[in-house]
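call fold(seq) -> tokens
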Amino acid sequence: MRVGSLAVLAAMAGLGMAARPSNVSICDYYTGVLLQQNTAENQMKLLTLVVNTAVIGNYSSINVGIAVPGILAQGQRFNGTDVNLLPYFSGGFASTNDGGSSGVSQNFLDDGGAAPLKDNKPANGMKSNQYTLLTHLYQYFGVLLGCSLQGAPAYPAYSGDASQYQVHKFMDLDSTQIGYFITQVGLSAASFGVSTDDVTLVGKTLGKVFGYRCSPPTTVVPAQGPQLQSICLDPSCPLDANATCSLYENNGVGIMPANATTAASGNAATNSSSSSSSSTTTSKSGSATASATGGASSSSASSGAKSAAAVTTARASAVFGLLALAAVVSLGL
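ret:
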């Protein structure tokens, strides 16, 4: 999907915006302000810009001058610690939940990598892990940011997994990784002119819902009801004040995912779906001896290895990205 002529957005991005009325959702407000008309198609365009920028970093001239490295950027540090989230997307870690008892390696950059995102699309085609991931992100964000026109043909409703704990339980994410991810989402929104107050509100809410270990069931998507949502599973993660660790596997403590190169060779997803994943040693802390060919630092990724997309449709669609902006709905925004 090409955004087309966005001269209005370019102009508005450089201007100060009036404070968002409390009775207007973040999605509806910024769609109207930046794209002039609050339509389902424009809501989808806005979320595509924000999501794609959060994932791969600045790629459009339509911004207010705020630099966004991107979730997939390598060589990044957060609070003095190296961060590298790329292996979770490229298949470098056996960290995807496909319904089994352990994580599997799954490549989510299998249909063009960064190149189609720079063209305001989710992927080159429509039958890949990458397409499923990005389109579900657009849909999930719409629910959580209060896109009132979502559900129309131009902007489908979200129907993926309800529990982000189940999606992310084999990732063993820590506070540094989550903090970096949330920061990229906030920077992306701010780069298109979202106010400091709104960005801060989203960031604080995300940290509260996803940044603690053993949090009790929480409703994120109203239609899906209360679910386990804790994403921070590393032992170093702060414990929720109302912790319910007994509801989580392993008492709410994650297990570090295996490097894809050392995972069991019989793991079906490791070798059938990760033809463009990293092929050498990758550490959870962020260092890697070789970069993935499907990473954001490359303009394109291998477009093969699409055969396993149907197996992980729901869970794959949510890998890491679904935690973004997830709790905003609980505040009625």
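Residues 272 and 305 are 6 Å apart (CA to CA).
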